[in-house]
Write a structure and sequence with these properties.
The chain is mostly helical and 142 residues long. Helix content is 70%, strand content 4%. It has two domains: 66 residues, no CATH class; 64 residues.
Length: 142
Amino acid sequence: MIGKPHWFNRRKYSGWGLMPKTWEGWAYIGVGAGMVALIQTLPIDPQLKFYSYLGIGALFLFDILHIMAGIKMDEREAKIEAMAERNASWTMVATVALTIVYVAQVDVDISNQELLPILIIPLLVGVVAKSLSNLYLQNKDL
């Protein structure tokens, strides 16, 4: 597609996705941000802006997924990645379950409140679990 896998590394310590490792990777991100900024400044119909954002988002999503699939890892890196993802998934599931139990026990009416903390806290816990797993497994003999 547009981006190349050798422009990026996988994220190890700051979540999921890609991290640029060459100037081309940074330029790729800059072009994407520039396209969004350009659409934002154009005096066009809000509905057309929405569909433009949707199109650009879909294009970059498919391209990023293509790039991520093309990043080559050796056997050890693949094993570390799998274990870190597993640990992050289990901690997110546990956090969501504990949040649901808490909301049920306290009998909180969440219909009028924002659900953002319920969504963000498990993601943050997952990022921490993935980061710690990567740090621990980096130095371990696998």
